[in-house]
Structure formats: C-alpha cells, structure tokens
Design brief:
112 residues; mainly alpha; Four Helix Bundle (Hemerythrin (Met), subunit A); two-stranded antiparallel ribbon; 2 strands
C-alpha cells in the first residue's frame, strides 16, 4: 500500500493544540462546548476549518470524530444519503461563522 505521509512539524503540534484548547475552553466559568456532542462537533469542524496539517485534515477530522464518539459512547446518527466525507466537505466549503457551522454539524451528526 502506498501511503503519503508528512512529518509532524512543531507548528502542526501547536495548531492541533490550539484546537484542543479551543474545544475545552471556558468563558466566565461556563464551558464553551459543554456536552460530548458539542465537543465532538467542534473538534470535527475546527480540525477541518483550522487546517492544522499539511494534508489529510478532513480524513483526520472524520477519524477523530469516530474515535471520540466511541470513547464517549456517543452514536453518530446513520444517514444513508449523507456520509461523513460529504459532511466534511460541506464544513470545509461553508462560509458561515464557525459557531453556526458547529451547531449545524451537531444537528446533522447527532440529530440534536
């Protein structure tokens, strides 16, 4: 199997660290993303929109989402017409504010 791999650079680490800090941040004592579904959606969208890696951001976001949901016993709503890859592309192309993208993605992924 021929895989393309790019070495992880310090700026990649800093960029993904920024995503983690954003998702786990608090404002005036309140979690920015309080529920596991909020966090899952935020990680998914921010990895795609912040583009922390040279390549594979959408694939990484999908994998991170699947692992996060499995670890937190969250079920992604199955949708026969829209796959995670299509949702990832839609997130990438969206021009809406990131908070709106995260809310819409949460509704799509978790039917909430």
């Amino acid at each position: 199997m021929n895989l393309v791999a790019f070495p992880l650079q310090p700026y990649n680490e800093a960029n993904i660290d920024s995503v983690v800090k954003t998702v786990n941040s608090n404002f005036f004592g309140h979690a920015r993303f309080p529920d596991p579904e909020d966090k899952a959606s935020a990680y998914f969208c921010l990895i795609i929109k912040d583009h922390p890696f040279t390549d594979g951001n959408k694939r990484t976001a999908v994998l991170w989402l699947e692992v996060f949901c499995e670890l937190h016993n969250i079920e992604i709503q199955s949708n026969d017409t829209i796959g995670l890859d299509v949702i990832a592309i839609s997130v990438e192309k969206s021009k809406l504010p990131i908070e709106d993208i995260i809310k819409m993605t949460k509704r799509i992924l978790f039917n909430i």
